[in-house]
Specification:
Radius of gyration: 15 Å
Strand content: 15-25%
Number of strands: 9
Order of helices and strands: HEHEHEHEHEEEEE
Number of helices: 5
Strand order of the largest sheet: 1-9-8-5-4-2-3
Largest sheet: 7 strands, mixed
Distance between the termini: 19 Å
Shape: globular
Helix content: 25-40%
């Protein structure tokens, strides 16, 4: 796991996404956990997660000392509904985790608009969306950070593994 193939993989994925750096991890869930810790959100902060998600996502938030808050999904594409996000906002909300489910990207314009208006971090869950684009731009390149999974049933299956992407060098 420490061989030159990992660095080559990180470089290839970095070039594919058009980002400065990608960090390979043991699982996508661990990439999410590491990003949460690197973002240094205050303990007890709320992060908004789609109600339709993999169980590990809210559990990693809890393990990082955060409180997951579930927002409804849009019945047309099963992605996070921005109107539901607005209903979930409180003075403790610090981040939004849009999940690009089944290769269908979320409405990132609406997510980024909400995040900007409320000073929130955006961490994209791209576990099911490697290769997907939103308005011609790869998912995983919006907001503050993103994570990918390469487990079974993912667009790229390496049996295990994940990757973290962060926009700022400090978080990376």
């Amino acid at each position: 796991v420490d061989g030159p193939e990992i660095a080559a993989f990180e470089g290839a994925l970095s070039r594919r996404l058009g980002v400065a750096r990608v960090t390979a991890t043991s699982y996508g869930r661990m990439a999410f956990y590491y990003l949460l810790k690197a973002l240094d959100l205050p303990a007890g902060s709320e992060i908004i997660i789609p109600a339709l998600t993999f169980w590990a996502v809210p559990e990693m938030a809890r393990a990082a000392g955060l409180t997951p808050v579930f927002a409804d999904v849009d019945p047309a594409d099963f992605n996070l509904d921005p109107r539901a996000v607005e209903r979930c906002l409180t003075d403790k909300t610090r981040a939004i985790v849009p999940t690009h489910l089944y290769g269908l990207p979320c409405d990132m314009d609406a997510v980024e608009r909400l995040a900007g208006a409320h000073g929130l971090r955006v961490i994209e869950d791209c576990a099911h969306a490697l290769g997907a684009t939103y308005r011609g731009r790869p998912v995983g390149t919006f907001g503050d950070a993103a994570f990918f999974s390469f487990q079974t049933l993912k667009p790229l299956n390496t049996y295990r593994g994940g990757a973290a992407v962060a926009q700022s060098p400090e978080v990376a």
